[in-house]
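In this supplementary section we document a worked example of the pipeline. Step one takes a protein sequence of length 131 as its only input; no multiple sequence alignment statistics are reported here. Step two produces a three-dimensional model, which step three serialises into structure tokens for compact storage. The input and output of this example are shown verbatim.
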Amino acid sequence: MSKTLRSFQSIVFVLAMLFFAHQAEATHIRAGEICAVRISQSSLTYRFTLTIYTDRESTVEVTRGGLATFRFGDGTEYVGGDEIAANAVTFTETAINQQVGKVVIEFEYTFQALGIYVVSYFEEYRNPGIV
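The serialised model returned by step three reads:
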């Protein structure tokens, strides 16, 4: 077997292992929702509550690292677990039972103008079928 062929096989093997290792971690977010409540009648200030239901048997922790993004729809976003935690009014994690956990993160945010905004949260490693 030529040295080039062995190098190619080694590269393919390493890439395959990285792909499968990434897929193996895809198990911690079961479901989630975002609720918005206007908390000021004189300004456009809202309280956003992000509730995430997690698989407690997973080794992946919600919003840890740089894989999470919370967007307010006006160009403002919190990227990464550290930024999300730093801007949160509250951040609580509780166990519902042995398999399911609940993470609740609250933000207060004031929009600069009236408009229609799509508020969203994205994170890697969702359970299959979660949209």
